[in-house]
Design brief:
This protein has six helices and eight strands. The protein is an alpha+beta fold. Helix 1 crosses helix 4.
Length: about 200
């Protein structure tokens, strides 16, 4: 357990604010990148047990696209941006302006760039609100079953942080709809440091 007070309404409200700001910044950055108008739903922000993640993604055998980045400096941990396959193809069609049926080198590179933009938007929001210096690594992309992708995070963080910040955002452009699932997994000390800086711990 990261902290005994994770159900505290104030903590949830503060984390929701980070999710809202990060999502807004991510959509603004994507709209600028695409030169298109993008509509965004109100993000759903929750703190969940890491064991719940496969269920949220449709089950351990559900094929998904996972984009991983490491968190470094004042906050240590991991951030994951996960898309179901339909959302990934819709996103690629938005990016590349053509029908996509397979994940080739260009597609994976495009998804990596989007993952970097989205993760940076959330991390910059968190850094601004906390005053902490947070940097992210180069993204790595995996296309695999949800259980396999999440096992990496579970192995790395399961022993030190059993809860994660989950932000679900749906954004649309024309006929394309993309549901993005972002998971922030700071280690236990980083989570406490983050909440302390936010004045809620």
């Amino acid at each position: 357990m990261v902290t005994d007070n994770l159900n505290n309404d104030i903590i949830i409200d503060v984390l929701k604010e980070i999710g809202n700001i990060g999502s807004g910044n991510a959509v603004t950055a994507l709209a600028s990148m695409l030169s298109k108008k993008i509509n965004m739903s109100v993000p759903r922000v929750r703190i969940i047990d890491i064991k719940q993640v496969p269920t949220i993604l449709g089950g351990e055998e559900e094929l998904v696209v996972g984009i991983y980045l490491d968190l470094n400096n004042d906050i240590e941990g991991n951030i994951m941006f996960i898309l179901d396959i339909e959302s990934a193809f819709n996103l690629l069609e938005m990016l590349l302006n053509k029908k996509i049926k397979e994940f080739d080198e260009i597609s994976v590179s495009a998804l990596s760039e989007v993952g970097n933009i989205v993760a940076s938007s959330y991390v910059n929001s968190l850094s601004t609100l906390t005053g902490l210096k947070i940097t992210i690594s180069i993204p790595s992309v995996a296309i695999d079953m949800a259980g396999a992708i999440l096992s990496v995070a579970a192995i790395q963080f399961g022993l030190i942080a059993d809860q994660v910040l989950f932000i679900e955002t749906v954004f649309e452009e024309g006929i394309h709809s993309v549901k993005g699932n972002l998971f922030l997994l700071p280690d236990i000390n980083s989570f406490k440091k983050m909440l302390s800086r936010l004045g809620v711990l």
